[in-house]
Design goal:
Layout lengths: L7 E5 L12 E5 L3 E4 L11 E5 L4 E5 L6
Antiparallel strand pairs: 1-2, 2-3, 4-5
Length: about 70
């Protein structure tokens, strides 16, 4: 998820080649360094997400939770 004004982006969830799903959340601060953030509640991959300037939140939709 890209943030406005070149603040950086969030890299959220995902999976590897062995179908291991991830709860990992990493903030890529101003495209310069990585900062680990609190993990997702559930492991998740293959979803859409967007940033809302209205409430400064990231929303994720759909995807798979490996179940």
């Amino acid at each position: 998820v890209h943030l406005p004004l070149d603040q950086g982006c969030y890299i959220i969830g995902g999976s590897d080649f062995e179908d291991n799903y991830s709860k990992r959340v990493t903030y890529f601060h101003q495209y310069n360094n990585f900062v680990e953030r609190a993990p997702l509640i559930f492991k998740r991959a293959f979803f859409c997400s967007c940033y809302s300037e209205f409430d400064n939140s990231i929303y994720s939709f759909g995807g798979s939770d490996s179940k």
